[in-house]
Amino acid sequence: MKPKLSDYELATIAYHRDTLGVNPVAVDVASRVMQVCYFDSDKKLLKNFQLTRSKFFEFVDKATEPMLFGIEACGSCNYLSRYFESKGHKCKILPASKVKAFLKLDKNDKIDASGIFKAMLSSVESIPPKSLDNQLIMNLFTIRDQLIKQYTQCLNASHGILYEHGFVVGKACIASNSKIIQGFSDAEESFEAGSKEASHFSVIKTAVFNILDNLKEQIETINKYLLKYGSSNKTCLNLATIPGVGIQTAVALNAAMGDPERFHGAREFAAYVGVAPIITGTGGKTTVLGIRKSGIRSLKKSLYMGAMVYLSNAMKNGSESSWIKDRLKTKRKKVIICAIMNRLARIAYAVAKNGEVFDETKCNLIKNLR
């Protein structure tokens, strides 16, 4: 049974075509095929068909009139949005959670495409796309996190190998690289020179050293690039004036935020990052829970480190505020650090939106932390 459009939806389509000059088209994006859904005003028919990826781009290129493409937020939504706009079209990125309300119980590509089409005709608010510059900077942080993870994995494996041969070289961390080198050298001397065992261990040692040196060099290259980029960007320099925020964290904040006008307020940006607490309630009772697991993991790590250093220095210098002292009596340090993370993200939004350096006298959020 083909889905029917309501009078309101038909009026909305007519408004887009006649007033805005665009034809609404919903697309269910996938890696190999695209499901396209739009209303043919001439035939008074809702068309819903599938195209291969190459055929879909031909469909976009050969369009004779401007279109308003509606797509769900996904990995390629920013690229597709920029592509559509380069061809003279417009794009509306819809949150996947909001589209669910327009879907039926069953699920297939046609149902998803028709649900997206109905959602884009409603009052569902769209998500502004990221610029190519911001997207590439976020990709840099993603690669950097993966390199650090591989470096840590190699260190852990090296500790395990040395421990199997009776050598303990301390805890596994990035700073233990020199201990690993010394441990392999000591372990190699324990084997008889020229023996088969010494030959085996020499190959292991060479492989481990090459991997660690290569990963370390790549991490340092990315760090230097991010530092250079942040030092030449005005917004990043302004963000770096916030207590607990360094240049790399400032670059991550700027890349994640993009245009501050994308968000309605500081709390919405903090929720987007994943540091805003979950608030739930019913029957007049409201409960504040922990922070969300979703968000930007690399930025959450940077904010956590900044908040932890901020709290440690305040406690060490005896400059912690009554706000912190009162909560240290009943709350764990990690809870307070998460609260500081939330405040740092909200302050960063205000600093980026105003285009000024951090000013403590203008920021109510930081006064409670002083």
What does this structure look like?
The model has no long low-confidence stretch (mean pLDDT 85). Strand 6 and strand 7 (285-291) form a beta hairpin. The chain is 57% helix and 12% strand. With 370 residues, the chain is of the alpha/beta class. The chain starts with 6 loop residues before the first helix and ends with a helix. The chain has three domains: 7-120, ATPase, nucleotide binding domain (Nucleotidyltransferase, domain 5), CATH 3.30.420; 134-231; 235-367, no CATH class. Strands 3-2-1-4-5 form a five-stranded mixed beta sheet.
What is the number of helical segments per DSSP (H or I, 4+ residues)? 15
Distance between the termini: 64 Å
Helix content: 55-70%
Q: What profile does the largest beta sheet have?
A: 5 strands, mixed
Major β-sheet strand ordering: 3-2-1-4-5
Q: Brief description of this entry?
A:
The chain is α/β, with parallel strands linked by helices and 370 residues long.
Keywords for this structure?
single chain; 370 residues; alpha/beta; Nucleotidyltransferase, domain 5; 3 domains; 5-stranded mixed sheet; two-stranded antiparallel ribbon; 15 helices; globular
